[in-house]
Amino acid sequence: MTWDERFASPDYVVPAPMQFLVDLAERLPPGGRMLDLACGSGRHSALFAAHGWSVTAVDSSAAALALASNAHSGIATLQRDLTSPEDFPPGPWDLTVVTLYLDRELLRRIPGARVAIAIPLVDPRDGVRPMNPAYLLESGELRRIFATGWEVEHYRKTSPAPPARSIAELVALRS
């Protein structure tokens, strides 16, 4: 199933925003510029737009971007594949969000003054849903990527009950 087919399916349900991003949206003052890379259905774009942010949502799926633009009138959308720096819209960005999408090169060249990231981890626990290991971080890898040039404000490894997979969450400020 393609991403467009998944997001266009009548069975697709937009998930709730991740709690660490809800907390961040409530903590940061309104009025910033947010870039949501690989935004999917736009759940985090809508969250920050509702908190008074100017939001640009980027995804490769036209169906995902249709959901994002319908989620809140304050969301600008761009269809891009994110495989090169030219795929980033011009900033400056006060916050860049990436959730459930892993491209290690993208993480190393991510724009923005602050980043908020959540990516699935290799999770050897019994009963965890299988996933392509190319899209999983090793334990501690996210912190290592942001060890230089960033001040980590939040880091947490979630460990939900299987079949859900563990996720690394990170919020960091460019130093």
What's the structural blueprint in terms of helices and strands?
Elements (H helix, E strand, L loop, with lengths): L2 H6 L10 H9 L5 E5 L5 H8 L3 E6 L2 H10 L3 E5 L15 E5 L4 H5 L5 E7 L20 H5 L4 E9 L8 E8 L1
Parallel strand pairs: 1-2, 1-4, 2-3, 4-5
Antiparallel strand pairs: 5-7, 6-7
Structural class: alpha/beta
The ordered H/E elements are HHEHEHEEHEHEE
pLDDT < 50 stretches:
none
What fold name goes in the CATH topology slot?
Rossmann fold
Q: Please tell me how large the radius of gyration is.
A: 16 Å
The CATH homologous superfamily is called Vaccinia Virus protein VP39
> So how many helices?
6
| General shape | globular
Strand content: 25-35%
Main sheet characteristics: 7 strands, mixed
What can you see in these coordinates?
- This protein has 175 residues and is an alpha/beta fold.
- The protein has a single domain, classed as Vaccinia Virus protein VP39 (Rossmann fold, 3-Layer(aba) Sandwich), CATH 3.40.50.150.
- 25% of the residues lie in helices and 26% in strands.
- Strands 3-2-1-4-5-7-6 form a 7-stranded mixed β-sheet, covered by helices on one side.
- α4 links the parallel β2 (54-59) and β3.
- 36% of the residues are buried.
